[in-house]
From TrEMBL:
One of its GO terms (cellular component) is intercalated disc. GO terms for biological process: cell-cell adhesion; desmosome organization; heart development; intermediate filament bundle assembly; protein localization to plasma membrane. The keyword Nuclease does not apply. Keywords: Cell adhesion, Cell junction, Repeat. This is PKP2 protein.
Length: 296
């Protein structure tokens, strides 16, 4: 567990160690099957996998990177229509976002297991069944690592979490735990998931009222809670920016007074949350059809 947090070279060596990742996954599967998700060894295994999933897409060996990105490169080569961002037109970007990973292997080995749906479901199971905070945080953190970025792997993992594995109820429950780090990591994961336009309506329907309910009435007084508040605001921004319906959901959940109160805080120490709330308010105001509702 300590060695897995030793930096990029340490992670690389451990990912390449034959049988190591497979053994960790095998142990966790056994613990879940035996209804023992709270033992210390399971916590250690999940924390190792959490660390090994950090910056995974950037640090993958070239052979994996080529197989994952080949479809993406073909799409961009086939359409060079100039757009607002040079040759990467909006249409091309949207196509790339919908590009799936190559078909999953039924028996993944080694590093392939780190993004496989089997392990994603294991994380979600531990989030739901374990009462050990470090195990919950590491499981959420591993999914957060795997959904960071905009490449085909994070997008595919996000779709698995939300649609294929129906993971939102388990993640939503973590918004209401008392442990600050677990709550912060759960919100960070939802922020990553909410960046995927095809998942935003599902997330808003299942989680948006809960996000609003855990928003504080004003900027909180500690750094972790402040960062969590900022992440909630940015998640709500992602969910409402392109959807008047989702913005109305936020309004119905009585979120507007909270967001306003957070945005007007003057303290430089906790300006991150205030800034995020202000960005959210600006975005909400762009839904002109809701102006009269906002004013009421």
């Amino acid at each position: 567990r300590n060695m897995s947090s030793a930096g990029p070279e340490g992670r690389k060596k451990m990912r390449e160690c034959e049988g190591l990742i497979d053994s960790l996954v095998y142990y966790i599967q056994g613990a879940i099957a035996d209804h023992e998700p709270n033992d210390k060894a399971t916590e250690n295994c999940v924390c190792i996998l959490h660390n090994l999933s950090y910056q995974l897409e950037l640090e993958l060996p070239e052979s994996y990177a080529q197989s994952i990105y080949v479809q993406r490169r073909n799409i961009s080569n086939n359409d060079k229509t100039p757009g607002c961002f040079g040759t990467r037109s909006r249409k091309v970007k949207e196509k790339q976002q919908d590009t799936p990973l190559p078909e999953e292997k039924s028996n993944p080995k080694g590093v392939e297991s780190l993004w496989h749906s089997t392990l994603i479901r294991i994380y979600l199971s531990l989030i739901a069944k374990s009462t050990r905070n470090y195990t919950q945080e590491a499981s959420l953190g591993a999914l957060q690592n795997l959904t960071a970025g905009t490449g085909p792997m994070p997008l595919a993992v996000a779709r698995t979490v939300v649609q294929r594995a129906s993971g939102l109820p388990s993640i939503r429950a973590m918004l209401h735990v008392s442990h600050p780090a677990v709550k912060k990591t759960a919100v960070s994961l939802l922020r990553n998931l909410s960046r995927n336009p095809s998942l935003q309506n599902d997330i808003a329907r299942e989680v948006l009222p809960d996000l609003v309910s855990v928003l504080p009435e004003c900027v909180p007084g500690c750094e972790v809670a402040c960062e969590t508040t900022a992440s909630i605001c940015y998640t709500l921004f992602n969910l409402t920016q392109g959807s008047s319906h989702n913005a109305r959901l936020l309004l119905s959940a009585h979120g507007l007074p909270k967001v306003i109160a957070i945005s007007i805080n003057d303290s430089n120490m906790f300006s991150k949350a205030s800034r995020a709330a202000s960005v959210l308010l600006y975005s909400l105001w762009l839904h002109t059809d809701l102006h009269s509702a906002y004013k009421r």
